[in-house]
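Encode chain A's predicted structure.
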Amino acid sequence: MSPQFAAFVLGGVIMATGGPAWAHHSFAVFDTQHPLELQGTVQEFKFTSPHTFILLEVKGGDGSSMIWKLEGASPSILARDGWSSQSLKTGDEIKLTIDPLRSGAPGGAWIGQRTNFRSGRPVVCCVSDGF
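Encoded structure for chain A:
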């Protein structure tokens, strides 16, 4: 095999596999060392690939409200734990622990196991692994 052909093949492999890596972002933007507890009202639950989102209206101590954009795992990962596109509905009141954005903007990463209804009841309960 000539060096030119090997370079051509290598370039093709890099181009074919590099796109998904560039398209996917790092979770380094989230501060996992300083989790934050939030309570609020679901404005929208997006059960979409590659990541799910919760748009959560959170009221401040002064009565003002702010929309937090919370990014979660993929639908396929959440589905393994019993989540579906119907698990949360607009108007549901939830409390959850998130990993906030390092920038301080109203957003963060949410995890299904750390998400409950305001009453304390888990959004998804009692998933069995079949054993």
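Residues 3-23 have pLDDT under 50 and may be disordered.
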